[in-house]
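Exercise 3.2. Students should predict the tertiary structure of the chain below and write it as structure tokens, then compare their answer with the key that follows.

Predict this chain's 3D structure.
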Amino acid sequence: MKLDHLRRLLGWLTHVIDAAVCLLLIPNYIYYFPQITRNYLLPDNQSGEKLIAWSAAVIFVPLVFSAVRLTTVYFTAPRLAWRKKYGEEAPSFGKKLAFLFTMPDHVSAFALLAAVYAALPAKITCPAINELLPEGGKLVVLAIAAVMTFAAKLTAVNYWGSKRDEAEYGKKAESHDALVFGIAYCVGGIALPMLVPAAVSLGGVLGTVVSARLVAVIAAICVTPFILRQIRAFFKRRSFLKQLKRLCKEKKIKLSKISRPYSSAYNIRPGESFCVSDSGETYSCVMLSARRMNTPFVLMKNGDVKLIFNVNLFKIHLFSFTRTHSFGYETPHKKVVILNPSPRNAMTTGGDGRPVPIDNGEIIGDYTVYNATAFLNSLERGSLCRREKKKFDINKYLE
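Answer key:
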């Protein structure tokens, strides 16, 4: 028992020290290093010193968020406590807040970091803000640290809910994320003071040849595909829910209250969407959305879904990356996955681990998978979760 307490204490100290090192060393680095090399970075800019201060101050805001989120995601004790308390449940926003404010590890770490920021002068915690606001810099630093820390911890809890496989929180993953974090902010802190003057100069040149109307048109063209995807997801989901309610009413099928009917069309979260009961059988259904129709959708037996994003230059494939979301949950009833909107390529992993296409009614782990139309047709026929075998009619070929 004492050994468990010691391990927990060491984990807590590691979490706090990692966050403190990131939050004290990097803000000083991105402020003082460009100051030393200012004559080389900004030789013709008389306001280079203020520009560096402004750049470092701007970077400080996401820096606090990223550092706290990174260390919280890999903070083992509260993550396991979260798993034990909620399991496969998708807790509400209020429960997430209650967990953050009642979990001793979170509260004590937050209090210690707040005490460090309160005790140290702003010229140590964030010299850039201290230069820009010599009188009220300390209060500004405290306010930024408090807001970003809270937001970071909340998003870390959401991340625990979307990634439930503990194997993904190993030392290798932590080291990789920490390396990316360090390089991104250290390089970004040096590059930003150089890019701002270049961007301003380029903007001045473009301003003489590009009209505001053209800029607005280009921006609209860039934003339109994103907006259309959201609109498509909404109408697809609304159409499915209307057909489902009408079918259940006509066939006297019992339909439970629908959880997150429209928000689930925009993000994937664990938990049941609704239940339908017919002929003495109850089916627990979860709605998953593929907003990008051409993004491959790989359903896993453990209740995860992997979205494969391919980055291409014209027709040349550059690289791919995946995002994993968890939708799994526990229930005594038969479980059904409804893809709405559905992807063009719905897949699962074959015996060799490679993605293979799936069809409606395919059983993946504990889940039977349908798109919206196939689900409604199966529910109407009373054949939900039953693979229908096609009969071979020899007479058709003898005619």
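Discussion points: Residues 368 and 385 are 6 Å apart (CA to CA). The chain is about 60% helix and 15% strand.
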